[in-house]
Design goal:
Strand order of the largest sheet: 3-4-5-9-8-7-6
Radius of gyration: 22 Å
Helix content: 25-40%
CATH architecture of the largest domain: 2-Layer Sandwich
CATH topology of the largest domain: BirA Bifunctional Protein, domain 2
Distance between the termini: 50 Å
Oligomer: single chain
Strand content: 15-25%
Mean pLDDT: 88
């Protein structure tokens, strides 16, 4: 009912709607309307109250909630169930917990801040309050465990497309799943899996995006390599930096991933092969790794060469300096560009 009140106010943005009208239209008491108005105010909505005129919703700071993200989101699987928190230790940790308890395929977990955010290879992830997007998505794909990398590629494509649509700038993807702007990392994706020998029980896609961070928000040790959408494409140096809508970016990611996931999640081997090829081909269009000289640490061995391609299942192909051709998986390697981003 609270959000029915909100919908009425949104439909009359900037105008007053009387408490009596809201009471009659929604079939609740005026006291209940007053209670719902106060709850909405506590969530951050700017609502003016007048004893004579009623209530008026004004434009204000962006409010993020399960309702705001899910209302009107036309996805079929991804984001149909959204769990929102002001703070979690880690969205991935919580997502794995509810996945093990049987949550729905496509459930999204979103937090305004993380106290113990995680990156790849056990690294920490700085998760400033209300500055970025800290989100994990539970998926139950029909693919075999060895095909897991294709889901990571799919997630990076969904993020890149969302940034391109909402920020009007084309990002790059550093293999396998770091999204870059101006050679700085603005997004990292952590894929964790629970599986048996022949099937995946569930996987969790953890997506962290630096959206409206100022450089001062990053630890000093990260300022050379980390960036945000605001810093990288928010305007000229002499102008105030533009902030971007986290809500719109989240909704766009969920919509893009939903389309890719539903096409990919099939038991038809031929259809799956065709879709996997499309994902790989699309990933290559965003790649800043293919054709570049790279260094990979793999099982205690250092590989140096040129990244020439990726396989259908997402392995990076490196033409090594010793003349060998090696295929590496993200779980086994840490790739560094010898020039530029590292």
């Amino acid at each position: 009912m609270k959000y029915k009140v909100l919908n009425k106010l949104k439909a009359n943005m900037g105008l007053y709607v009387s408490g009596e009208a809201l009471s009659e239209q929604l079939g609740v008491s005026r006291t209940a309307v007053w209670k719902y108005i106060n709850e909405l105010k506590s969530q951050g909505y700017i609502i003016e109250s007048s004893s004579k005129k009623g209530y008026s919703l004004s434009e204000g700071p962006e409010v993020i909630s399960a309702y705001e993200i899910g209302h009107g989101l036309e996805t079929q699987v991804v984001g149909k169930d959204i769990k929102y928190f002001n703070e979690l230790d880690s969205t991935n940790t919580y997502a794995k917990l509810i996945a093990a308890e049987g949550c729905a395929d496509g459930t999204a977990v979103i937090a305004e801040a993380q106290t113990a955010g995680k990156g790849r290879l056990g690294r920490g992830w700085s998760s400033a309050h209300k500055k970025g997007i800290w989100m994990s998505i539970v998926l139950r794909p029909l693919i075999a465990p060895e095909e897991i990398q294709i889901m990571t590629l799919a997630a990076s494509i969904a993020v890149a497309k969302a940034i391109e649509q909402e920020c009007h700038v084309r990002p790059g993807i550093k293999w396998p799943n770091d999204v870059l702007l101006e050679s700085k990392k603005v997004c990292g994706i952590l894929t964790e899996m629970n599986c048996e020998i022949e099937r995946i029980n569930f996987l969790v896609l953890g997506i962290g995006i630096n959206v409206n961070h100022d450089m001062e928000d990053f630890p000093e040790a990260l300022r050379e390599i980390a960036g945000s959408l605001k810093e990288c494409c928010g305007g000229e140096v002499a102008e105030p930096k533009k902030e971007f809508s986290r809500k719109n970016i989240i909704r766009c990611i969920l919509a893009e991933l939903d389309v890719i996931y539903r096409r990919l999640n099939t038991e038809n081997e031929e259809a799956y092969a065709d879709e996997a090829k499309q994902i790989v081909d699309e990933w290559k269009k965003y790649s800043v790794t293919i054709g570049r000289r790279v260094k990979a640490a793999m099982k205690g061995q250092e590989l140096v060469g040129v990244a020439t391609d990726i396989t259908r299942d997402g392995r990076l192909i490196i033409a090594c300096e010793d003349g060998s051709i090696r295929e590496v998986m993200s779980g086994e390697v840490s790739v560094r560009g010898l020039l530029g981003y590292s």
